[in-house]
Amino acid sequence: MAERIVIGAGATGAAAARRFAANGDRVRVITRSGSGPEAAGIERIALDATRTDELAAAMAGAATVVNASMTAYDTWPETMPPLYDSILAATERVGADYVMLGNLYAYQETSGAVSERTPLEPHTRKGKVRAELWRQALAAHEAGRLRVTEIRAGQYLGRGAVSAFSLLVPAHVAAGELALVLGNPDAAHSFTFTEDAAAALVAAAGSGTAWGRAWNAPVLTVTLRQAADRLAELKGAPRPRLEALTERDLTLLGFSAPIWNEFREMAYMGDRPFVVDDGDFREAFGLKASSLDEALAGM
């Protein structure tokens, strides 16, 4: 029975905690509010993870720390580095392995499929933040201070997922209304089901060979229109109408919540095909993406 720490209780972090517990591990979920899944074997701890000394004390005895935390999307350049610095330092202090939940923002913009060999040369602010967080963790690994890996997920699908798709599509599809989407609705796009990302985190944590590199999580590649059409079928709703958000639409949405202003710099991931190669992970761990129906269930 291993001791696992999961920091963050979003859809993927919570799913990873449940999977660890189902495997018989003891799990501590750390969030600022003390939220997290209620299940046998899971302890929930309310703690600000930027308080390194308190965090290290809460993580004492852990074999693995999974960092599935994220700050407010519009504050990443200011708030992500100190949070991740604290988690890395505390993990090193307790002698645990470190598994980061990342995304695809750090990769260089490319017209081909994005693999782990795509250079980390992002042109966006959020991409640069993600690249630097990984480089710092990898440097600690290469210095022999701890073992580190990162699972990089695509835009999320799944119950409780927070993504452009989840924010813009399901409610309008269910109501039979026009859905405005981010990017070209007919461009191929690689999505990650939250449960697949969680399975990848758990697999990496239990591996002897995952360390010292990053892995693209399993993806399913469809167009926004295909995903929306299938979601409508599952909900018994009319075939959806989709249109791309305009600059004016984003500006108006930005008055309601700052997150909408942040989507502009990531528009390149939706304006044209954005396809991910997850072959390394599938070959190494024998895990592949779930079906589209599984990913859309409950959305």
Automatic annotation (TrEMBL):
InterPro entries: Epimerase_deHydtase, NAD(P)-bd_dom_sf. Gene3D superfamilies: NAD(P)-binding Rossmann-like Domain (3.40.50.720). It holds the Pfam family Epimerase. It comes from the Bacteria. Signal peptide: none annotated. Residues 6-207 form the NAD-dependent epimerase/dehydratase domain. This is NAD-dependent epimerase. It comes from Glycomyces algeriensis.
